[in-house]
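Researcher: We're teaching a course module on how sequence relates to structure. For the next exercise, students receive a sequence and then see the predicted structure as C-alpha cells, so they can try to spot secondary structure elements on their own. Here is the exercise chain.
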Amino acid sequence: MKVGLIGGTGEEGMGLAYRFAKAGHACIIGSRSIEKAQAAVAELREKDASLDIAGAENAVAAEAADIVVITTPYSAQAATLPPLAGACAGKIVVSTVVPMSFEGGKAALVPVAESSAAQQAQALLPRSTVVAAFQNLSAKKLLKGAPLDADVIVCADDGDAKARVSELAAQIAGVRAVDGGPLACSQFVESITVLLVYINRNYKTQAGVRVAGI
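Model: And here is the predicted structure for the students to work with:
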C-alpha cells in the first residue's frame, strides 16, 4: 500500500513514514518544498537504506497515495488541505493533527469551530473519509525504531475505514489499535496530547497511552 504523508517533514510525519515503511508499505513524504521532502527521505535512508520512501510536493503525495496521512501543524491545516481536496477525493485521510499552541512555555488546546482538528479536516475534504488516529504517539520514539508500548485510539464514522487504519496502526511494533468511536470523539483524543506534554515534562519521558480493561 502507498501511504502519503502531508506535511511529512516534521518529526511526527517522518516517524510514521519510518514505521510504515518498516512494515512494508511504500511511503511518500509530502511537503510544500520538494527540497525539504527529499532531505527528510535522505535522513530516513541513513537509518535504513532499504526503506521504500520517496519525497514529493504535497499534491503529488496525495494523488499517488492509497491512504493519506495529515501531519501538518494545526496552524497550517486550513490553508494546506483545500487545494488537496481533489487528490484526496474517495480516499481515507488520517488526521494525526492536534490543535495545540505553546505560549510562554505552556501548552494549550486551541478551540476549533468544528470541535476537533479531525472534524475540521473532514469539512475541508468533504469527498474523503477522515479517520482520526496516532495523535498520542511520541514522534521521538517512532524515529528510534524500538517497539512501542502504546495504544492508538482510532475514531471514525465509517467502520471499514476505521478497520483499515486500525490494521495499519497494529503493524507498528508494540502498538495496539483501540476503537474510539465516531469521529466526534477525536476531540477527546486530541486533548490527551496536551496532557502528555505536561506529563512528559514532569517525568522527563516520552509517555504514551494505554487503555486498561480491554
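Model: If you want an answer key for the exercise: The first strand starts at residue 2 and ends at 6. The chain has one domain: 2-203.
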